[in-house]
């Protein structure tokens, strides 16, 4: 790796680049990149704010890779979206680097709502639900339904599924862009049908709550099919 001494860290969204257009890639590629970074002394930071807590089918997207990151950033699913709460986890080596009576080594990171007791309580309750067998089965069922929808529309050039995430890239003359005008058309179409979807330009994606019913999910599939046939 050239100029490794000038690189502070490697920050990545594991397996799925969210706001970048729900771009999915294979764990083998990420594993190779993390190994390369570690060989050159570069810290690795996984942003699992979107991918964590079951979204990709496993508890964390980094569970798909062999080499683990040095730092893990978590939020969103931590409380099931009920309250704002974030967690940063790190290796023992990084923790020990700040464990000192020398105040110059302090990691000054605290703020007014650190360890907010109400948010932490919501997080614990959310984890109880997430780790239950019922929720695990729900995640598997959503993935199964997504896969069936994908197979039904195999002719589409860009439809991808990972865990509970389904993404469709709609082909337009504007090309793929966050600013593609199809975004406004799609948003209005779905909101009129009682579906809150936030297209990323010409990328339509689903991240359904794990408690969604099969009936509701199939209704959404039907509306997507209706939109694609416009």
Task: Write the H/E string, N to C.
Answer: EEEHEEEHHHEEHEH
How many DSSP H or I helices?
6
Content of β-strand: 5-15%
Termini, distance in Å? 49 Å
| CATH class value of the largest domain | Alpha Beta
Number of separate strands: 9
Described by its quaternary structure, the protein is single chain
Characterization of this structure:
This protein has 2 domains: 4-130, Type I PLP-dependent aspartate aminotransferase-like (Major domain) (Aspartate Aminotransferase, domain 2, 3-Layer(aba) Sandwich); 133-228, Aspartate Aminotransferase, domain 1. It has 6 helices and 9 strands, in the order βββαβββαααββαβα. It has helices spanning 27-39, 92-98, 117-130, 133-152, 182-191, 214-228, and strands at residues 9-12, 16-17, 23-24, 43-47, 71-74, 87-90, 159-162, 165-169, 203-206. The protein is an alpha/beta fold and 230 residues long.
Describe the SSE topology.
Layout: E1 9-12, E2 16-17, E3 23-24, H1 27-39, E4 43-47, E5 71-74, E6 87-90, H2 92-98, H3 117-130, H4 133-152, E7 159-162, E8 165-169, H5 182-191, E9 203-206, H6 214-228
Parallel strand pairs: 1-4, 4-5
Antiparallel strand pairs: 2-3, 5-6, 7-8, 8-9
């Amino acid at each position: 790796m050239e100029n490794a001494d000038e690189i502070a860290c490697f920050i990545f969204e594991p397996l799925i680049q969210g706001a970048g257009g729900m771009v999915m890639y294979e764990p083998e590629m990420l594993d190779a990149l993390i190994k390369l970074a570690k060989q050159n002394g570069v810290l690795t930071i996984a942003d699992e704010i979107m991918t964590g807590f079951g979204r990709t089918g496993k508890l964390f997207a980094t569970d798909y890779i062999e080499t683990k990151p040095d730092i893990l950033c978590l939020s969103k699913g931590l409380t099931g979206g009920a309250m704002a709460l974030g967690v940063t986890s790190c290796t023992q080596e990084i923790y020990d680097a700040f464990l000192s009576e020398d105040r110059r080594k302090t990691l000054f990171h605290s703020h007014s709502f650190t360890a907010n007791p109400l948010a932490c309580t919501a997080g614990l309750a959310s984890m109880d639900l997430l780790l239950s067998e019922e929720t695990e089965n729900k995640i598997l069922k959503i993935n199964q339904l997504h896969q069936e929808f994908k197979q039904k529309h195999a002719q589409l050039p860009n439809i991808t599924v990972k865990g509970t995430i389904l993404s469709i890239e709609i082909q337009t003359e504007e090309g793929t862009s966050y600013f593609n005008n199809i975004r406004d058309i799609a948003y209005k179409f779905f909101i009129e049908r009682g579906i809150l979807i936030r297209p990323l330009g010409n990328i339509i994606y689903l991240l359904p709550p794990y408690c969604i019913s099969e009936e509701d999910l199939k209704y959404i599939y039907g509306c997507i099919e209706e939109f694609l046939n416009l």
